[in-house]
Specification:
Helix content: 10-25%
Radius of gyration: 16 Å
Largest sheet: 8 strands, mixed, barrel
Shape: globular
Structural class: mainly beta
Distance between the termini: 25 Å
Number of strands: 8
Strand order of the largest sheet: 1-2-3-4-7-8-6-5
Order of helices and strands: HEEEEEEHEE
Strand content: 25-35%
CATH superfamily: Sortase
């Protein structure tokens, strides 16, 4: 519907405005969490960016504990995010923006957040998720501790509450400095069906990490 598309564009603009207003002082996109919990991105949005190539490290060996479910046939609100290579099986919290128009981070280190102002899986656009790299203090792993180990071709599964799923394959990863992340591009709708995962990366400085890792995957099933 034209109205729905207009509303989504307005929400993306609102989020971008909130991101611009945060600067680099905070390591979070939500002020309601522990100050040393780290997940999603903030910082100004430049006209052009030069991301650093991600250099993956050794990843855990998948043991095929995840058995694919029937493929979803309609858009759905996600209930579970599964990354077999990293042995991640994360319940999904539904999040939006806070009172300062800043993206909210997941409440728990074991959960992922899906943002209601982005696409539903199965709808033919970009569904955006975030998760904490660590939680409580630097070096205490949370669900996206090993997210930098994903490489093109790795599988990401999003599961509905009806026990159906959509499978995606990683196509690209970027490591952006906090002051140089193009949030409008990260959050924007796309004609291909995708998921985008965001977490903290880089060096821990003055209460937050100085980079954000972005992983993009395209639907295969």
């Amino acid at each position: 519907m034209p109205f729905a598309r207009s509303r989504r564009r307005a929400l993306l603009a609102l989020v971008a405005a909130g991101v611009l207003g945060m600067g680099i002082a905070s390591g979070l996109l939500s002020s309601k969490l522990t100050p040393r919990s780290h997940s999603v991105a903030n910082g100004p949005i430049p006209a052009a960016t030069s991301p650093t190539a991600v250099q993956p490290t050794a990843a855990p060996t998948p043991d095929h504990w995840w058995k694919p479910l029937p493929t979803a046939t309609a858009p759905f609100q996600p209930a579970l995010l599964v990354i077999e290579k990293l042995r991640v099986q994360a319940p999904v919290e539904v999040k939006g923006v806070d009172a300062r128009n800043v993206m909210e981070a997941p409440d728990k280190p074991t959960d992922a957040a899906w943002y209601r102002f982005t696409a539903r899986p199965g709808s033919g656009s970009n569904a955006v998720f975030s998760g904490h790299r660590d939680f409580g203090q630097p070096g205490v792993p949370a669900i996206f501790w090993h997210l930098d180990q994903l490489v093109p071709g790795d599988a990401i599964d999003v599961v509905s509450d009806k026990q159906t799923q959509i499978r995606y394959r990683v196509t690209q990863t970027w490591d952006y400095s906090l002051t140089n992340i193009p949030m409008q591009q990260v959050l924007a709708a796309d004609p291909s069906e995708e998921v985008t995962l965001i977490t903290a990366s880089g060096t821990y400085i003055r209460g937050g990490y100085d980079h954000r890792l972005v992983v993009r995957a395209v639907r295969t099933s």
